[in-house]
């Protein structure tokens, strides 16, 4: 293993990873966010760098320190994440692990919203955000050679993940079973189905660190030997 690492199976490979949540502002002091920790995305970026890849990590707001040996771009909104991702192209591989907000606040206000005397609560209007994974998958000549997405599902995991694989136009989907029955929620283990063109691989009872490690090696397998 050490000899292989020294050779750097991903040496010369440019890798883009998105990680963490996005925050969508309501006003200058409030936002809509989600509970993504960024642990899985950051672990993947770290695993890719360890195999010698030239990694750019685009991270939403997380509590994690910037991993070593890579470029880290910090963003807040889905739009900023998309802009940063497009600005990084060309890339050899893109792994979209971020929990991107599906909607942005279309009536965000420039000034802090104030309570009005009538006691009426304000209406927050939402508009669809761009899909970073789908956009990268459709990039034509600027498309990364390998585009990987995630799907966290609580039911009909394979069915939903397969539909996402089709819809997004990505090469692989890492489907994570987060149903209460899977026993993964809040625990140390994940339960993964990796969907590729050649079928489905099951990785039952696996940690986030091991998901990252296995994915990085699998990416190396595919990109190795094809400059
Ligand atoms: N994704 C993205 N940009 C978005 C939404 C999702 O890049 N605006 C990516 C995620 O990073 C992930 C994949 O798409 O790799 C699947 O995200 P998910 O939220 O599971 O899928 P959606 O298409 O948003 O469908 P839904 O939330 O309705 O299940
Ligand atoms: Ca979503």
UniProtKB/TrEMBL annotation:
Pathway: Cofactor biosynthesis; coenzyme A biosynthesis; CoA from (R)-pantothenate: step 2/5; Cofactor biosynthesis; coenzyme A biosynthesis; CoA from (R)-pantothenate: step 3/5. It comes from the Bacteria. Residues 15-227 are annotated as: Phosphopantothenate--cysteine ligase. Its cofactor is FMN; Mg(2+). CTP binds at residues 102, 112, 130-133, 150, 164, 168. Keywords: Decarboxylase, Flavoprotein, FMN, Ligase, Lyase, Magnesium, Metal-binding, Multifunctional enzyme. Catalyzes two steps in the biosynthesis of coenzyme A. In the first step cysteine is conjugated to 4'-phosphopantothenate to form 4-phosphopantothenoylcysteine, in the latter compound is decarboxylated to form 4'-phosphopantotheine. This is Coenzyme A biosynthesis bifunctional protein CoaBC. It comes from Magnetospirillum sulfuroxidans. The lineage of its organism: Bacteria, Pseudomonadati, Pseudomonadota, Alphaproteobacteria, Rhodospirillales. The gene is coaBC.
């Amino acid at each position: 293993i050490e000899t292989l690492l020294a050779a750097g199976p991903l040496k010369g490979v440019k890798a883009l990873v998105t990680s963490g949540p996005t925050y969508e502002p309501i006003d200058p002091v409030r936002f809509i966010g989600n509970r993504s920790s960024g642990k899985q995305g950051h672990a993947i970026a770290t695993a890719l760098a360890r195999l010698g890849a030239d990694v750019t990590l685009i991270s939403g707001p997380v509590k994690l320190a910037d991993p070593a040996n890579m470029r880290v771009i910090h963003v807040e909104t889905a739009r900023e994440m998309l802009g940063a991702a497009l600005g990084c192209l060309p890339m050899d591989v893109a792994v979209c692990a971020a929990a991107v907000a599906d909607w942005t606040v279309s009536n965000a206000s420039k000034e802090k919203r104030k309570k009005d005397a009538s006691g009426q609560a304000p209406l927050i209007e939402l508009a669809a955000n761009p899909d970073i994974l789908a956009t990268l998958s459709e990039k034509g000549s600027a498309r990364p050679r390998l585009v990987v997405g995630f799907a966290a599902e609580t039911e009909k995991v394979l069915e939903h993940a397969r539909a996402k694989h089709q819809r997004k136009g990505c090469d692989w989907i890492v489907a994570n079973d987060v149903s209460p029955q899977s026993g993964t929620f809040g625990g140390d283990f994940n339960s993964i189905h990796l969907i590729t063109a050649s079928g489905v691989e099951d990785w039952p009872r696996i940690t986030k660190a091991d998901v990252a490690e296995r994915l990085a090696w699998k990416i190396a397998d595919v990109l190795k030997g094809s400059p």
